[in-house]
Amino acid sequence: MAESYSHLSLRRETPVNEKRPRNGFPSIQEPPDVRGHGRGLQQKLAQAKEQAAGDVGGFDERRLFRFSVQKGFDPEDLRKISPEIEFVSQEDETVVIGFASDAALAQFEQLLTSMARGDYITNKQVFYALQGVDGWRPEDRKGWALKKQGLPESDSFLLDVELWPLEDNHQERDREWAAFEAWLTQEGIAKKDQVKQPGLTLYRVQCNAVQAQQLLKHRDVRSVDLPPSFGLERSVVFQDIRNFPIVNAPDAQAPGVVVLDSGLATGHPLLAAAVGDAKSFLPGESAADENGHGTHVAGLALYGDFESSLRSSLFVPTLRLFSGRILDKNNENTSGFVEKHIKEAVRHFVKEYNCRVFNLSFGDANKPYLGGHLKGLSLTLDVLSRELGVLFVVSVGNHRVGKDSPEGLAWRDNYPHYLLDEAWRIIEPAPALNVLTVGSLARHNQTYNSQRYPMDPSEIPIAQPDQPSPFTRSGHSVDGAIKPELLAHGGNWALNTRAGNALLDRVAGLGVVSTNNQFAMGHPFAVDSGTSMAAPQVAHLAASILREHPDASASLLRALLCAHAVMPKESQALIGRSKEFRKVCGYGQVDVTALHRSLESAVTLIAGGPI
């Protein structure tokens, strides 16, 4: 075995010349016809005022406007039009939202009149950058799932409502909350739960279709969407647990890895010795795993490459295992906002056990990231990561088979190009910037039937080993941030050509094997496919680094894992030199050869500090 060494630390020297901030206005293009530009903005402002007049509610009398701008525009420069225009939110690089009083609108109109006449105006580049003015329409307030699926047909249903953050003005934010809750009462809309934190205000409400239309017109509402939907599948394999030796407990000082999921079967023979604590954060529910997903994920978080351990019949835990139940028996969270339960769970395990690595193998298929700001669970994870110095490892999410999916042989013939389609975009909370997001690789290409009937070619795999799984989602995140960063084995799908090219996505035997919550029924292991199975293998590696580097920051853990990632040659051959597929594959799969310690042929230099 090659001799290994601790990674080398670098000490930062004080630079001779410190970086200086760049000053000056961003490069804004002057319109070819300045007077015509002014007249066009006049017309758009008049239309926007009519649109804004249709809004209801609001904690004050100002109106809400959407300003379309050139890239590089500083949102705070809205005040150069009038000091009574307040910047509220930047929805993407070219859309800025702001409140405007009647006095501000009058001043705006006066300046546009001067511009249309060809008169000199101050801060002309602000007006050059403006491309349009609109109200924030009901259609703008609809979230992705609501746009796709429409309102439920039932008489009463749940909706998630996000308000404008107003994080720079606490007094206005408090007034916004009070006014909105009073409005809900007035309209007969039931408030079921809420999340209030810096940068995010969410309400879960129960209402009817008429009330929903009013919500979509409310001035202080940023978005309205259907509640999250966490749908996950698994299948079972049968092996005899008695074939494996007794598992001994890890060292008492071993690093911990926390699985936030559907709970844990703490009595499983391969898990029990390593369990440090299992706690439920769902009101009225125990810490037990009634679904099975949490126990399946836990086996991978504890052992990493579970299949290799299974083949060698050797299970030696080197980590302590913790479980926080945040999902019910259906792998859903209907008791309130999952963000609240996650915050409570993370604070508990950090305070009581100094845990540093958390795995979240779930995603909300109703909330794909299509650009713009981060919100909801992504924002919550980023805030917790910065505050507590913890690392979250999350799954990129699974494509939900539906009308946007290929049909029949197109699953194979169009692979992997559809992985870049909008229907494969990463979902909450994968876009979070401070987390490690993990996509999925295929490991096997033979179904159970193909192994049993080796002469029968009827069941064909979609991906080959070490190519991206056909269900794995693609990035990027905010400002082109690479997501996912890493890949791990998560399974594969196949087609049954004798059954109309039916998709085999459940019991074909192409998934990832791990522990099963039904072990007492004689089924200690289960097989499942999904990015949920990929993430905990990376969480295992992250926690294992802490054995060699116990003081490593979350940033160092992320950096080491990404620095030791390589693109599998099978994936490289598939995607060639296409930079677009960085959105699917990130930096690749972690090579553990020199991850924990340097080798003669592979030396890692580490340093930490501000850039």
Please tell me about this protein's structure.
There is one protein chain. The chain has 611 residues and is an alpha/beta fold. The chain folds into three domains: 103 residues; 82 residues, Alpha-Beta Plaits (2-Layer Sandwich), CATH 3.30.70; 372 residues, 3-Layer(aba) Sandwich (Rossmann fold). Helix content is 28%, strand content 21%. It is built from 17 helices and 29 strands. It has a seven-stranded parallel beta sheet, sandwiched between helices. Strands 4-5-3-6 form a four-stranded antiparallel beta sheet. β4 and β5 form a beta hairpin. α1 runs antiparallel to α2 and α10 runs parallel beside α11. The longest helix has 19 residues. It is globular. About 3% of the residues have low confidence.
Mean pLDDT: 89
What does the largest sheet look like?
7 strands, parallel
Structural class: alpha/beta
Radius of gyration: 27 Å
Helix content: 25-40%
Number of domains: 3
Task: Describe the strand arrangement of the main beta sheet, using strand numbers.
Answer: 13-14-12-15-17-19-21
- The CATH homologous superfamily of the largest domain is named Peptidase S8/S53 domain
Low-confidence stretches: 16-25, 229-237
Highest-level CATH class of the largest domain: Alpha Beta
Continuous helix count: 17
**So, CATH architecture of the largest domain?**
3-Layer(aba) Sandwich
Strand content: 15-25%
